[in-house]
Design a protein that fits this description.
Strand order of the largest sheet: 29-30-32-33-34-35-36-37
Largest sheet: 8 strands, mixed, barrel
Shape: elongated
Number of strands: 37
Length: 917
């Protein structure tokens, strides 16, 4: 068979086959995408758009000073633009999880009160967990969804990882349109993906900062008849999408481009079967033409053919909605040319071409590496004159290609050698094979950091040097960010404990004789109650505000840091006398006198400051820390605001620390004890109730007063186990006495912390059922001050306790603040008048009036009254005459161990029976 007769057909078939294989390969698909990206870059154009992007940008983050934002900010934004009645509004923000209930309620209200076209909220597909391959659809909370339209926001990445397409709808249990479809009002949505038109210039959209809208710097009327998209544009939020043409864009901008693509008219590729019919016809035509001309004429024809294909593709994209693939036509044309040329060449020509290709292959490879490198590669002579520079070098220093050649490298990197007038050969030789960091300058005079490595190139007639230069601005910025994170508290942005320690060490090391350094340990008062009652979100806000106020007072006087929890510290190394330190302490205390307002609640936070001086109190930083901490605890205990370290008082602070470490073990090992003090019924002259009182004797600490360890427990998380241990022991003892025939009601004191816990009554019920104690045999005592932390919450908890059947009494009555409304509404059984009034009533008429009026008021409310601190028979007689129901005090007995109390009560009641008889 004469194959030359069918050469045109064979060339066309071979060229078509290669074009098809290349187009189907991964490399071919990536090349096709790159060609399409180049076309869209060339066709960049602004469009007439009504899109307004309200960006969560860096200025908004800095202005609102917290992240994540409370949802009330988004609610405020909705209310701010509502009067304008925008055409469409899309919030590209994740509302799928709950936050602060009050903020969630505000956002739900804002969505519900929206009167225009329903606001669009995002839903997105994601993996169920980092280790789970199941994909779930995450929707906004139902409270938000029922007042809004839901749209998907997922993109479809291409083979090179860039986002070029967007599903118009998600098809699952129900069809869910994309955000672009919702915004454009597209109803005809199928399974196809939308090709996003990146030739649309994002500058066509109006960008407005979130905080400008929130603070009403943009009037609402500005948004009338506009399509509004709200989303993150700040780089630090990380909501960026890798895209062609622009490298990366915020996700909300890509959504805007997708919407604008739909509105302008989406582009669709030619159907596959039609495409390959056209490619086959194209390769057949070129194979026919190439077979009838010389290779030089064919080369011109090939150039025209390859130029026509992208031109036609660009024209089709620009003036119609058609997408024409360039690669199959170009590869088909090239292969047809090569095959036709090979057919026409003689063997000698082929050998010559092979030789030329082999000779230049290495040079072309090296040249391509240099030209395509992202590093700046510059060749200089011994005088430092630039001989060659790749495109990256021109871009780095701000020059057009070729303009660097002939200039001196010292013009841009003056610090390369010590002698800035000229570069000597030996200076460059010393820098060979080293990497150094320097500052460089652009053509505009801007400075940026670089690292430079220089290598010597030996040629026959001259010595050249190759300099590889890298811009390390981003690396330096990341290093600064990491250093900041390592030395600063993320919540308050104040320096952290390591930074404080380093500063203190430096200050101590540079102090001269006669100079002092003060370390002020600052601890917040009543902060734990804020966290326990209002939650950690409010607590974080309070800490942020406290840090701001402290810094505003102290930043000019010393180095202030947050060292953990609610503790701050201030190092002052420039002061003339301790009076300045005292004055500064007063200013710090004064700056928190004004309540911190958040969520409609005014929060009072106080300070306790401990001060230790170097070298008067300590010779090193570690001891200075300990002693300022001791002074702080003394200030907190005494309520004096601030205290200087005193060695005489140090023992008590050390004892406090020891109590804190031993109390938890004492609860676990049950080395605590309950003693019981009788309460005498003044009517029957009998003992029918007792008060349980905690006692602790430690082998090392000795007898620890209740006010010491109970206060410690209330300031930590030990109050709950301590309370439960007390309840369990008291319940067991009540049951034991009843089994012995001794009916005694047991009164147990409750901490104010327990009245803030809704789960506490249920826990008491479980303990009572487990012990088998009768609820009527238990009396729970609460103090007046316990009601003042959160009255509404405390009232609910007390009512839940009363429903258990236990009696409730108010302890230490008269020492706090009791609203008569609370006494009226509380299910209270009795009042216990504080002993301070009873013990002084014989000498102070005012106390006697309080004693008399309290019993009258209590009986009018149907309450029993107990008098504490009864120590004389005259006191008991007077109380009986006033109408008091019970008396308790040393006149009758101190608190006793359970066994002794039982014997004492039996004897006392027996004597009362005989006297009565």
């Amino acid at each position: 068979m004469n194959w030359r007769r069918y050469s045109t057909l064979l060339i066309a078939i071979a060229a078509f086959a290669v074009a098809w294989l290349v187009a189907q390969s991964e490399l071919g698909r990536k090349l096709e995408l790159g060609i399409a990206d180049t076309g869209m870059r060339m066709l960049q154009r602004p469009v007439d758009s009504d899109v307004v992007i309200i960006g969560i940008d860096a200025r908004s983050l800095a202005g609102l000073r917290e992240w994540p934002w409370p949802r009330r900010f988004h609610a405020d934004l909705i209310r701010q633009i509502a009067p304008a009645s925008p055409r469409k509004v899309f919030l590209d923000i994740d509302f799928s999880s709950t936050s602060n209930p009050e903020d969630d309620l505000q956002l739900e209200s804002a969505l519900a009160n929206w009167r225009g076209s329903p606001i669009i909220l995002p839903a997105f597909y994601q993996f169920a967990s980092p280790v789970d391959s199941d994909i779930i659809l995450t929707r906004p909370l139902p409270a938000f969804s029922r007042h809004a339209e839901i749209a998907t926001v997922n993109f479809v990445p291409s083979i090179d990882g860039l986002v070029r397409r967007l599903p118009l709808a998600a098809h699952g249990s129900d069809t869910l349109p994309s955000a672009a479809a919702r915004l454009s009002g597209t109803t005809n949505i199928g399974a196809e993906n939308l090709f996003i038109d990146y030739s649309i210039d994002p500058a066509s959209f109006e960008f407005i900062s979130f905080i400008d809208v929130l603070e009403n710097r943009i009037p609402a009327v500005h948004f009338a008849e506009k399509t509004i998209l709200v989303g993150a544009t700040a780089i630090e939020l990380g909501d960026t999408v890798p895209v062609p043409v622009h490298q990366s864009l915020p996700g909300v901008v890509v959504q805007a481009l997708a919407f604008e693509t739909l509105r302008q008219g989406p582009h669709r590729p030619i159907p596959t079967h039609i495409l390959w019919i056209l490619v086959a016809a194209w390769t057949a035509l070129l194979a026919f033409l190439f077979g009838r001309r010389s290779w030089r004429e064919n080369l011109v024809l090939l150039g025209c053919a390859i130029a026509v294909v992208p031109a036609a593709s660009i024209a089709a994209f620009a003036f119609s909605t058609m997408i024409i693939s360039v690669l199959p036509f170009s590869v088909g044309a090239l292969m047809a040319y090569l095959l036709a040329t090979l057919q026409s060449l003689e063997s000698v020509t082929l050998r010559s071409i092979a030789y030329a290709i082999g000779f230049r292959r290495r040079d072309a490879l090296l040249k391509s590496v240099v030209l395509s490198s992202t590093d700046c590669i510059i060749c200089i002579d011994e005088a430092g004159t630039i001989k060659t520079a790749n495109p990256s070098a021109h871009h780095l220093f701000g020059f057009d290609n070729g303009k660097l050649v002939g200039l001196s490298l010292l013009q841009f990197v003056p610090g390369l050698v010590d002698n800035s007038d000229s570069i000597l050969p030996d200076s460059l030789a010393k820098l060979s094979n080293k990497v150094i960091e320097l500052d460089a300058f652009t053509s505009d005079g801007d400075t940026f950091p670089i690292d430079v490595s220089i290598s010597r190139v030996k040629l026959n007639d001259e010595h050249l040097y190759t300099a590889i230069i890298r811009d390390i601005s981003e690396r330096k910025a990341q290093l600064r960010q990491l250093q900041f994170q390592a030395t600063h508290d993320p919540l308050t942005t104040l320096p952290n404990r390591p930074a404080l320690s380093a500063h203190l060490d430096t200050s101590l090391a540079r102090q001269r004789d006669g100079e002092s350094v003060a370390l002020m340990m600052i601890d917040l008062d009543r902060f734990k109650e804020v966290n326990d009652t209002l939650g950690h979100n409010v607590g974080d806000y309070v800490l942020h505000e406290v840090a701001r106020r402290l810094a505003s007072v102290a930043q000019d006087d010393g180095f202030i840091a947050r060292i953990g929890g609610d503790e701050f510290a201030l190092v002052v190394d420039r002061f003339r006398s301790v009076d300045e330190i005292s004055g500064l302490s007063g200013k710090l205390i004064e700056c928190l006198k004004k309540p911190i307002e958040t969520g409609g609640v005014a929060i009072d936070i106080g300070l306790s400051i401990g001060i230790a001086l170097f070298p008067q109190d300590a010779k090193d930083a570690e001891t200075l820390f300990k002693q300022s901490d001791v002074a702080m605890y003394i200030a907190k205990r005494n309520g004096t605001g601030f205290e200087y370290y005193s060695a005489e008082k140090d023992h008590h602070s050390v004892r406090r620390l020891a109590i804190a470490s031993k109390l938890r073990r004492a609860i676990t090992d049950e080395t605590l004890e309950l003693h019981y003090q009788p309460q005498i019924n003044l009517v029957t002259k009998r003992v029918d109730s007792v008060e349980a009182l905690l006692r602790w004797h430690d082998p090392e600490l000795g007898a620890v007063r209740p006010d010491e360890f109970i206060a410690m427990a209330e300031s930590t998380d030990m109050i709950q186990p301590l309370t439960e241990w007390t309840l369990v022991q008291a319940f067991k003892q009540s049951v034991a006495w009843r089994e012995e025939g001794l009916a005694l009601r047991v009164a147990i004191n409750l901490s104010a912390r327990m009245l803030q816990n809704y789960a506490f009554p249920e826990r008491i019920g479980e303990l009572m059922a487990r012990a088998g104690v009768e609820a009527s045999a238990i009396e729970l005592e609460i103090t007046e001050s316990a009601m003042m932390v959160d009255p509404e919450r405390a009232l609910k908890v007390i009512r839940m306790l009363s429903e258990l059947g236990a009696l409730i009494s108010i302890d230490d009555y008269g020492t706090g603040y009791s609203s008569l409304a609370y006494l009226r509404d509380l299910p209270v059984h009795a009042l216990k008048l504080d002993k301070s009034f009873v013990m002084n009533m014989q000498d102070h008429d005012g106390d006697k009036v309080i004693v008399e009026s309290t019993v009258q008021m209590a009986h009018a409310l149907g309450l029993k009254v107990v008098a504490e601190g009864v120590e004389t028979a005259a006191d008991a007689t007077f109380l009986k005459q006033c109408g008091y129901d019970y008396a308790q005090g040393y006149l009758y007995s101190a608190a006793m161990e359970p066994a002794k109390l039982g014997e004492w009560a039996v004897k006392f009641n027996s004597r009362s029976v005989l006297k009565f008889a």
